[in-house]
């Protein structure tokens, strides 16, 4: 019994000495990453390297610096954005909000004179505001995306004295001068620059293909229009408008655009329903940078949740230009 007791005290003494040694030679230091690791103190030249222990704290969350962008950077609208954990009821509530924004909401800029331009090949039309602050007059500049072999809008803008840059990658033709003041290029409007963009199938895309797409900012720079006002920017690009508009807001290129004419699309299968909340922020952010809608025409509306569909032509004016007019 005495021998066992002696061994116990010897072991206890060794444990105490070892503990003092560890306390003296190792201190808890924050690592340069997101963990707290065990490290030798800086002034102890005998100890080198790091002995990592299980972190005492979970990795700190970074302030969204590397978060996935609000809108995706792949071909399908919103496809690579992080899915929101939403119930069906929450998604339906977001759909109601979207429907309000693009169909039900009253106009928030009263345009005194609206000009409607009918298309040659369809019943669709584009309407722009001809108030003094926004009336396109020579030498005006227009960018048009989504021609679909119908140059009626471009021809009308040329007659108004504008230089017109028109684009459509779905038309099987080469770059050419359609008329003296209307240039055409088979290039698409995108949220990024790409030469191998694969569009989803729709009425204009019947089989797999690849397109060349460019952001508006890239095209404006290539055309040496960075210092010019774009009197009208028009596009109808079949659900890609959500990504594209987000890119234009973020890049700041819309500051040089007086009028924005576009068609919002929500099809039963695109964009994904868990992204409806994010779609609404695109429209709301247009409002934040000074754009007010003066015109809307909703069509193709199906409020049934299983087949929810909504398309709306909308016209916006950049009210920052009314402030510039007042300063003159």
Automatic annotation (TrEMBL):
InterPro entries named among the record's database cross-references: Methyltranfer_dom (IPR025714), METTL24 (IPR026913)
Domain named Methyltransferase: residues: 87-300
Record protein name field: Methyltransferase domain-containing protein
UniProt organism field: Littorina saxatilis
């Amino acid at each position: 019994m005495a021998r066992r007791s002696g061994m116990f005290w010897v072991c206890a003494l060794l444990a105490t000495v070892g503990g003092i040694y560890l306390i003296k030679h190792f201190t808890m230091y924050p690592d340069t990453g997101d963990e707290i690791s065990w490290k030798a103190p800086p002034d102890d030249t005998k100890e080198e390297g790091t002995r990592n222990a299980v972190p005492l704290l979970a990795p700190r969350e970074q302030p969204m610096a590397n978060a996935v962008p609000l809108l995706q950077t792949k071909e399908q609208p919103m496809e690579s954005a992080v899915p929101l954990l939403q119930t069906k009821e929450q998604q339906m509530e977001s759909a109601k909000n979207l429907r309000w924004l693009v169909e039900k909401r009253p106009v928030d800029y009263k345009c005194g004179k609206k000009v409607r331009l009918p298309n040659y090949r369809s019943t669709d039309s584009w309407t722009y505001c001809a108030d003094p602050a926004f009336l396109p007059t020579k030498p005006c500049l227009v960018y048009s995306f989504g021609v679909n072999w119908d140059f009626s809008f471009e021809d009308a803008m040329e007659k108004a004295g504008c230089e017109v840059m028109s684009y459509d990658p779905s038309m099987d033709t080469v770059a050419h001068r359609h008329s003296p003041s209307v240039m055409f290029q088979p290039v698409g409007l995108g949220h990024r620059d790409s030469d191998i963009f694969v569009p989803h199938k729709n009425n204009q895309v019947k089989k797999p293909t690849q397109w060349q797409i460019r952001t508006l900012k890239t095209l404006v720079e290539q055309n040496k229009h960075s210092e010019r006002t774009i009197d009208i920017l028009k596009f109808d690009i079949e659900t890609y408008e959500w990504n594209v508009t987000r890119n234009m807001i973020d890049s700041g290129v819309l500051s040089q655009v007086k009028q924005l004419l576009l068609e919002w699309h929500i099809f039963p299968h695109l964009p994904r329903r868990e992204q409806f909340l994010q779609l609404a922020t695109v429209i709301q952010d247009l409002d934040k940078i000074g754009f007010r809608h003066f015109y809307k025409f909703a069509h193709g509306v199906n409020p049934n949740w299983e087949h929810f569909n909504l398309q709306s032509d909308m016209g916006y004016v950049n009210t920052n230009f009314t402030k510039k007019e007042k300063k003159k």
